[in-house]
Amino acid sequence: MALILIVEDEAPLREAYETILSTHGHNVETAADGEAALKLLADDKSKVPAVILLDMKLPRVTGIEFLRRLPKEVPGAMKSNVIIFSNQEDEPEITEAFQLGAKKYILKAWASPRNLVKVIDETLEKS
């Protein structure tokens, strides 16, 4: 199935999302922050995730900064469907994320495992 990159700083959540998506047949890579995600993508440019599941509040490089740097540092990764996955409801930052290429925004509190898989599958079907 699809390659999905999860960028999430909270290890238990990152591991849970990885397990859920792997169980549903996806290949999953993970990064604990935006810097690590940019490095992972830059180190192997042949790996273009179909979906990047991106938390907004990250250490070192935030979700917004990741989106700002992505086209410069890993241009091919702009083909990825970026789904903002956060509990933050900061309207200006969410608007900026969409302007920078994010396709969807999901509240973590809403995203049960079933809902998360459904949104990712729907995103993949449309791409």
Folded structure, characterized:
There is one protein chain. The chain is α/β, with parallel strands linked by helices and 127 residues long. 45% of the residues lie in helices and 20% in strands. Strands 2-1-3-4-5 form a 5-stranded parallel β-sheet, with helices on both faces. Helix 2 (34-43) runs parallel beside helix 3.
Q: How much helix is in the residues?
A: 40-55%
Rg computed from alpha carbons, rounded to a whole number of angstroms: 13 Å
How much of the sequence lies in strands comes to: 15-25%
Structural class: alpha/beta
Kindly, what is the distance between the CA atoms of the first and last residues, rounded to a whole number of angstroms?
A: 14 Å
Tally of helical segments: 5
Strand order of the largest sheet: 2-1-3-4-5
Overall body shape: globular
Query: Low-confidence spans: pLDDT under 50, at least 5 residues?
Result: none
Specify the biggest β-sheet. Answer: 5 strands, parallel
SSE series: EHEHEHEHEH
Mean pLDDT: 91
> What is the number of beta strands?
5
